[in-house]
């Protein structure tokens, strides 16, 4: 086992509520698309948004077996293609936001902790984040802390929606700091990924060629909300992102390869950032969008992956053992909202409209108390 840089590959994908779990062979092909042929990484991270219909995300008994089956497919693919053997570090979700982490089996895995934050309507899990913090250790080295955060922030263009994204980002980071306070979270490796939903400022020009490298560069410098807010110190102050050299990741016409929809102005919604390293001693191997092959055209988003080599952080060697961690977003309102979403969605699929009306009434009554 090398004592050099850690090799980490992260992939984020908004699945448009259409990941075909009922077709295992298709899921296997999707996994192969999301994990490029360049194998041999120490850690693989898959962040998903809308990987099930929103209502299904309210039921752990539905979602957890799906994530387990997906992790099995990921491990099968990696272990067949690589001379290494990989094992599951863990997976977690909040609603339809999912996170899976696998790593080389030779790494010692300890103190695996997860947390989540809900920031959808009525504090539901329509939007929010899920995070996993763990200690990984190579033989002969000190343990190091890795934290992976997968988020789905508020959608739509406009000042109020942008402000909502900024507020929710701050709340997500505050929640992670609170719930991971017994780990070396602050001193370790931190990655933030997902459908962050930041849009382009200014008016849309329907004639813009978003595949032109010059256009991409200018949009990133002068119009991209995330970059503008970052420059203003409003978000991701301690984070860095590799240069974007790929076309917008949203909104594509489903069942089409590269045709953007005119219903929304294109934007780089899907992003992966990482906490800054001392002296910038890291190496970006790839920061690219994944080709929209026919296998991936069920979504209106394009997946993005980051392959990065990051340095050892010896300062993270002291890690306290996590005990019982508080749940900061387990509010009654959010719990009720998720149940309304869950059972309401189920009722709609069964055409039980009167049940939906009853659930909405119950939600409004609970909100008023």
TrEMBL record:
It holds the Pfam family Exo_endo_phos2. Gene3D superfamilies: Endonuclease/exonuclease/phosphatase. Residues 4-316 form the Inositol polyphosphate-related phosphatase domain. SMART domains: IPPc. InterPro entries: Endo/exonu/phosph_ase_sf, IP5, IPPc. One of its GO terms (molecular function) is phosphatidylinositol-4,5-bisphosphate 5-phosphatase activity. GO terms for biological process: phosphatidylinositol dephosphorylation. This is Inositol polyphosphate-related phosphatase domain-containing protein. It comes from Zygosaccharomyces mellis. The lineage of its organism: Eukaryota, Fungi, Dikarya, Ascomycota, Saccharomycotina.
